[in-house]
Design goal:
Layout: H1 3-14, H2 19-29, H3 34-40, H4 45-59, H5 63-75, H6 78-92, H7 97-126, H8 130-159
Helix pairs in contact: 1-7, 2-3, 3-4, 4-8, 5-7, 5-8, 6-7
Length: 176
Amino acid sequence: MSHFEMYLDAMNEVGASTLKINNFISLIESGSSVNISLNEIDSNDAIKEFVGHTFSIIETQKPHIIAASFTFGREDVIPDMFLGIIEKSRIKGNHYNKLKYYLERHIELDGDEHGPLAHEMVIGLCKNDPIKWEEVIKVSKNALNERILLWDFINLCIKDKNGSINKIENPRFANA
């Protein structure tokens, strides 16, 4: 089972809807662009921005830029973030085995294998090129900022007891 399939399985276990992501996949498989698909499923602005940023990085077709965004916007931050989720869920007494396995698997792979390999990849791609290293720093900061904004938005959604995301005051998410 792929990580994505594990993720969907965990979402089902906790009662989260997979309707939008499944519709998104179907649209992509039928040839729709990412942006059109995101609009078609009525995705909110925070998610559109995060996914749009990710694909704008891919579209640079610069391996060191893509590697830096992946390494410092994902591989470096996810293990600690997921550890926090597991710890908080233990405190609250939730026992979602599939979600826990998914998170622990990410922690293990990203922390022990993918993270160090990703660092080596960035070093190998940039070598002693100061321009590439400058680009790596810039794209890494942007990737982290985009991840923070996405997770802040998700946090606001979780805290919103009424399910009315439009009440969120942050102007960046006004159309969410």
